[in-house]
């Protein structure tokens, strides 16, 4: 697994904010911090105490009024580099020993992206290994802005099929793929995976909302009608001879998507790595769903970051 050695934040006015390896963990803490814990947990050098208390106050106010995220982009930068003021951050470059990946921030919030980078890359929440990725066919269900798809393409995947049904999020995904010049390795499918071929409404709060869901609807402000397909239908249509790994983070729709991949899973026994926490019954129902498809799967619940099942 690739390890991040540095992150560079690029601003609209062409300024550069380098975050070196020793500061990365502190940066990633910001992406999941409770405003009440700012003072005790963030010990980044050169923090101005007045700015810190201002950030704490504003973050608390935002949380009270239901603003997401509670910490603003400007607050994060104030904490990281308190003696300088920066304009809008528009891109993140993630550096490894063997290269770099880049992600746009024009239509997605810094903290949302940091949270994904922390989980998917830094903490390897999906438990991916190079031997399971290199020259393999990968299904990425719930691709969002492309962190997983772009990472596995970088690791040498033969082809990645990235399913992202929300139209504006799919635009962000395509822009990130183009930014990394991976159009020939990653194919975007603007559909959701499920257990039937039909159309449904998907609910979300804002552009680039990683929590967009077909079934978790409570208090969502917006919706969009999307196309749903079974993975079996897609595999047949695309004439894919073998699927090697399926990753899913689809906000409570995992059981339906697994059922819709029955023929593919029975035929290929791909590695399955998917979210285990969206619904209270997921930890009970999802392993049973997998076992009904193939009894010979071994199933592990990993807690590297978010809780995810890994089936092999």
Walk me through what this model shows:
The two termini are 18 Å apart. Residues 36-46 have low confidence and may be disordered. The protein has two domains: 1-123, no CATH class; 126-311, Vaccinia Virus protein VP39 (Rossmann fold). The protein is globular and about 60 Å long. 35% of the residues lie in helices and 23% in strands. With 312 residues, it is α/β, with parallel strands linked by helices. It contains twelve helices and 14 strands. The strands form three sheets. It has a seven-stranded mixed β-sheet, covered by helices on one side. A four-stranded antiparallel β-sheet has the order 2-1-3-4. A three-stranded mixed β-sheet has the order 8-10-9. The protein has helices spanning 21-30, 38-41, 49-64, 73-80, 110-122, 130-133, 147-154, 167-179, 231-238, 254-259, 262-268, 282-293, and strands at 6-11, 16-20, 89-96, 99-104, 137-141, 159-163, 186-189, 192-193, 198-204, 222-229, 245-248, 271-275, 299-302, 308-311.
């Amino acid at each position: 697994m690739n390890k991040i050695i540095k992150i560079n934040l690029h601003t609209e006015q062409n300024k550069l904010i380098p975050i070196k390896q020793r500061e990365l963990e502190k940066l990633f803490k910001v992406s999941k911090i409770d405003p009440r814990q700012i003072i005790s947990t963030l010990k980044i050098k050169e923090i101005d105490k007045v700015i810190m208390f201002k950030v704490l106050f504003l973050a608390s106010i935002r949380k009270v009024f239901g603003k997401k995220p509670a910490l603003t982009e400007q607050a994060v930068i104030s904490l990281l580099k308190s003696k300088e003021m920066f304009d809008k951050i528009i891109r993140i470059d993630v550096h490894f020993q063997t290269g770099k990946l880049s992600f746009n921030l024009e239509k997605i919030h810094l903290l949302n992206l940091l949270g994904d980078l922390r989980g998917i890359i830094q903490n390897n929440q999906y438990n991916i290994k190079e031997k399971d990725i290199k020259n393999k066919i990968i299904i990425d269900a719930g691709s969002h802005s492309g962190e997983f798809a772009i990472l596995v393409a970088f690791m040498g995947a033969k082809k990645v099929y990235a399913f992202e049904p929300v139209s504006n999020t799919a635009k962000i995904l395509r822009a990130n793929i183009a930014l990394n010049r991976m159009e020939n390795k990653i194919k975007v499918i603007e559909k959701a995976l499920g257990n039937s071929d039909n159309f449904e409404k998907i609910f979300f709060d804002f552009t680039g909302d990683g929590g967009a869901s077909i079934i978790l609807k409570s208090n969502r402000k917006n919706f969009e009608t999307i196309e749903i397909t079974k993975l079996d239908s897609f595999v047949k249509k695309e004439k894919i001879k073998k699927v090697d790994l399926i990753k899913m983070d689809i906000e409570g729709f995992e059981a339906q998507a697994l059922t819709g991949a029955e023929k593919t899973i029975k035929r290929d026994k791909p590695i399955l790595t998917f979210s285990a926490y969206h619904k209270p019954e997921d930890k009970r129902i999802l392993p049973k769903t997998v076992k009904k498809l193939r009894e010979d799967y071994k199933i592990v619940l990993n807690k590297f970051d978010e809780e995810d099942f890994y089936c092999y």
